[in-house]
Structure formats: structure tokens, C-alpha cells
Amino acid sequence: FIFSFETNKWTKVDYSNDILPESRCNHSAVVWDQHNKMIIYGGWNWNDSYSDVYSLDLETFEWKLLSNNIDCNERVRHSSAFVPFNDKIGMMIVVAGEDKDMYLQNDCYFTLIVKEEENNNLKMINWDQLNFQNSNLRLSERYAHDIIFETNSQSIVVVGGYAGDTQLLNDFMVMPLFDLFDLNLDIDDNNNENQYGNIINDVKNLNLKWKCCNFNGNLPDPRFGHKISLSNNQLYLFGGTNNWMVKLDDFFSVDNVDLLVASSEDNIVANDVWTCAVCTFENVNNPLPFCSICTAEKN
Q1: What are phi and psi of 298, to 5 degrees?
Q2: What are phi and psi of 295, to 5 degrees?
Q3: Were both Cys, which of 67, 72, 80, 111 would link to 28 (CB 3.0–4.6 Å)?
Q4: Tell me: the pLDDT tens digits for 34-70?
Q5: Residue 200: exposed, middle, or buried by beta-carbon count in 10 A (0-12, 13-18, 19+)?
Q6: Spatial distance between the Cα atoms of 175 and 200, rounded to a whole number of angstroms
């Protein structure tokens, strides 16, 4: 389906070919804006989990199977982000989730996505695992979290999720990728396979790290199944499910995300605070149901 912000209507898409992903849920999807392609990975159909990767051309609505590697670890209820390096090459990063046996994970995998020179198709170059510095600060195991790539600070941001044993999270974790952008990620027009191998080895040799952002003031309630997005350097958080399995319709924001996540400290102390975006936009005087920030500020 496509939503039009001009007509405020949804339109069902008719695909232009017969190569279609199997029906699934709890997969992830990213978009390479420059080439107008959506890429999906993983998920399950309540019986089987998937490790396949498809791309969808958002102009022709043609699907293409990029990988059906059954040796790759299937992943469910994970989150993914796309990191574009230039017009020829980008990277899809998958963070945490559940494996095919429904065990929680906190690992991170990546795959190179390459634009083929002779046509407008994409090519996927294997999966491999990102390595992290030995540190006490690690991403906790989780699923049904959400992540974004913040371009100005070149960082992955992870918010919330389900950590098992009925424990929900409302943390704000940051993975800086500026060391990644210092690598030579250019490829020539021959798309030599050795080039891809060299890039993958360089990425694997990096020792990345996680940072934790600590906010002043009240926080959104712990939750899973929510969504986050960026606009005009503000991060927005909407909805999800809380500890009482209540489906939420609250809406929060935090300002100056690029300055926030660009801090050199492992434990970041934020000057900005979470605010209720509904109150900000509509000047609501009464607290929203199940909104921890609205209720606390009203009291």
C-alpha cells in the first residue's frame, strides 16, 4: 500500500512481476532513497522463519530476490537501518531480534548492497557480523525495538524493545559509525568481487562500540512494537505496547538528535528532554491516557 499525503488516502499496489516474497510478518524494511528501492529481510509466517532478502522498485513495483541464503541466520522481530555511502554502495544493518528458535539476540549483522552499473537493479554481497569493543556497555538482548540511521552524526540509534521475562525497555542506545565512513568504500565500474571482499574485511576489522544516552526529566514508558522516525533534527516516537499489554497511541519527541548522539562520552547526559509531541502541537492541557510525561507534568 502507498499513502498519499496530498489526498490522505491509501492505494493498494499492483505488482508488475510474479517474483513475490512469501506472506510474512515481523520482518524489517529499509529504503535506499537515491535509487527508490525498498529492501525487506527476514520475518516469519507463524510456522517458518525467513532469511531471504528482496528489493522492490518503488517506481515499477517490481520485486527482485537478492538472496535466499538458507545458511544465514533467520531473524524475526528485529530492526534494520540502511546506511548509504555513495551512489554505488550502501549497507543494510540488522540489530538484535529473535533467531529461528525464538532466542533473543543482541548481535548486529551487515550486508553490502551494490547498485549494478548496467541496469537499475541492486546486488547483495553476503551477510557478516559487526564486531564491538570489549566493554561493559553493551546492547541488551531485545526484540520489537526500533532503530534509525542519523545521517549528521553518522550513528545508529536504538530505542526500547522487549528484553524477555516481561521486561520492557525505554533506553536510548547509540552506535557511532564514523570509523566506517573513514574507510575506502568506493568501487570501480567493474564491480570486482575482490573489492567487496576487501570492504567486508575492513568493516569486520573495526571495533565499534555502544553508547547510552541518559535524559533528564520524565521518559516515555517502556514499550515494544513502537516506531521512531526523524524529521528536522527531531526524533519522534509513536505508539507500541506497554507492560500491561495496552496498545499505546502516545507521541513523543526529543530535539537536537545530531548533537545528542555525536557526543564522545560513552554515557551521554542529554541537555534536551523528551516532550509529549501531542501537547507541543495541540497545546493539550489534560494529560493523555497512559502518557507518563503528560501525567507527571500535570501533577
Answers
A1: -65, -40
A2: -65, -45
A3: 80
A4: 999 999 999 999 988 999 999 999 999 999 999 887 5
A5: middle
A6: 18
Residue 274: helix, strand or coil by DSSP?
A: coil
Indicate the burial class of 160 (C-beta count within 10 angstroms; 0-12, 13-18, 19 or more): buried
Q: Residue 244's Cα: distance from chain center in Å?
A: 25
Supply 124's cell numbers: 547483495
Distance CA 238, CA 227 (A): 6
CA gap 152, 262 in Å, rounded:
9
- The predicted-structure confidence for 169-217, as pLDDT tens digits, reads as follows 999 999 999 999 998 887 776 666 788 888 999 999 999 999 999 988 8
Residues making up the chain, counted from first to last = 299
Give the span between the Cα atoms of 226 and 146, in whole angstroms: 7
CB-based contacts of 106, cutoff 8 Å, min separation 6: 96, 138, 139, 140, 141, 142
